[in-house]
Amino acid sequence: MGYIRISDTKDYFIKDGKVFFYFADTCWSAFTNITIEEWNDYLNYRKMQGFNTIQIDVLPQWDRSTTDIYMDPFEVFPNGKWNFNKINEKYFERARNMVEMMIERNLIPALVILWANYVPDNWLSKMLAEKGVSHVIPRENLEEYLYYVINKFKDYNPIFIISGDTNFEGDGATEYYLKALEMAKKYAPNSLTTLHLCGGYADVPEEIINSPYYDFYMYQSCHFKDKMHWAYETALKFYNKKVKRPIVNGEPCYEGIGSIGNYNIYGRFTRNDVRKAVWQSLLSGAKAGVTYGAHGIWSWEKGLGEYSVSDYAAPYYWRDALVFPGVYDLSFAKWVFEKYELYDIEPANDLLINETQEIRVSKGRNKIVIYNPYNFNIRLRLDEDYEWEGIELIERKFFVPEVKKSEGETIIKMSPFNGDSLLIGLK
């Protein structure tokens, strides 16, 4: 199986000589929660839906659903703590077999090496330590663990997501992740590396930004309905970093998850919310791909017990979450990118006269792409003429928009559809 590399322009991926649009499903809890039979069904279905990548946490996900097949990755002391000196080979052999099943289907594993709860000096490890459930890997065991995990999976050319849901609240986190980046490149040079960060976070330490072992930016636009603007704002923060790299929104709002901490006010995220977050990301610099998550798939919910994190709202049974409709909105986004060859687009909201930043504009060499989250006139500062096409995104209906020019303004009139739309202008 070939491996992914970074384009010469440093803003998208190449695989087997062609542009590769990263299209990942989020299945963090795969190695602890999923039976081989379930894994087989899941992989077949996601492959049919067009996914090319699956994101998984190598170690147990701290907020996973209850499982009947759980296994610890290390020997367990009588007090419940892990003995980091003794790796459970059975755990990692099972994980390796599951990765082999992905490779058989030409699905790329994107493996998180150090979720935030296993690393010091970040919000999650601190919170769990206060609850007495800390599993931070001791510094003296870190390199042994990294060497083992990287070599266990390197033959499959995975993407190594070095961190999970992290921020940086001290030197310990920075040291752990710098070491992990360095070792991933040393022992698996064909594998790309990135960091998965907590929601809306972009303040990555300069030592990491400048690391030659850090291949692409991945951010999380979060699961707070009152913070959905982070989808485009965080993309722009990474777009404006001094070191240019491809950008992926690695965790848009999950379809079906409750707005964290206030779902009794805002409810659950719908496919429309997910689609909005993804298109706003793609047109704000995060154009290297998209990631999808279904509430019940990432945690792998099987109805075996009450879900432990009440802030999220209860997850759906995994087989129900597997068929959520939002998947097809994202696979359509991938189709549009490939059909119109949008890999050269760059954020261009300076062309927009409308006051709302929720409309996102991007411009390429011979095209302009606009995401309109509502149905109203779009006003642009354009000197050139374009032929315009429209796509209503709820039912994916194509239409020809009415366009007028007046005193240096191009006005794209409201469509007859009451929903969000994509407008594409071609020279």
From TrEMBL:
It holds the Pfam family Apiosidase. Residues 9-342 form the Apiosidase-like catalytic domain. It comes from the Bacteria. InterPro entries: Apiosidase-like_cat_dom (IPR025277), GH (IPR017853). This is DUF4038 domain-containing protein.
